[in-house]
Design goal:
By secondary structure, the chain is an alpha+beta fold. Helix content is about 55%, strand content about 10%. It has a four-stranded antiparallel sheet with strand order 1-2-4-3.
């Protein structure tokens, strides 16, 4: 019997750090640095020394608008300190390339876990598309009595839309 593999970083933590920006699944330099156990500055220095290994489809900088939007969505304050430059984000290929510029054993082990998370995410997206295709086949196969059921399932598969519920107190203003 083999020894149970212990993860350096929980898979859920890695999966939560994968963002969708410019229609690409990416990870922020700060999140990666934390996982690798290095500072964001040191991670970016290593990347800067090896820029030829990071073409635009491996890594890119966020625009000011993207960075501001991300800061707003995540609730990160920028009142003290902050960054001089916009964050870099890395695609799965960029994350794989990071293992060649960060030479610690931890970086290699963390990279393996991150690559597995990207693969799991890709498999989930593929199975979701497969589920939609199968649902179409079933819908064509059965008569109208199940149309309501199929429509309900499709509604459940849709991502949430609209603005989130407001939090806080509201006062009623009397009209004069």
């Amino acid at each position: 019997m083999g020894k149970k593999r212990e993860l350096l970083i929980p898979a859920e933590r890695i999966e939560r750090a994968i963002l969708l920006i410019r229609r690409q699944k990416v990870m922020l330099d700060a999140d990666l640095a934390e996982m690798y156990g290095v500072t964001t500055g040191n991670l970016n220095k290593a990347v800067t020394r090896n820029l030829e290994r990071f073409p635009a489809d491996f890594m890119f900088r966020l625009t000011k608008e993207e960075a501001d939007s991300l800061r707003f969505q995540s609730g990160i304050s920028n009142t003290r300190g902050g960054r001089r430059y916009a964050p870099r984000v890395f695609t799965d290929q960029g994350v794989a390339m990071l293992s060649s510029v960060l030479h610690s054993p931890r970086a290699v082990a963390v990279n393996i876990e991150i690559m597995r998370a990207f693969v799991r995410l890709r498999e989930m997206l593929t199975s979701h598309a497969d589920l939609a295709r199968r649902l179409d086949e079933l819908e064509r196969k059965y008569d109208q009595q199940f149309a309501v059921v199929f429509q309900a399932i499709r509604e459940l598969m849709k991502p949430p839309t609209g603005k989130p519920n407001e939090i806080g107190y509201h006062t009623l203003v009397e009209k004069k």
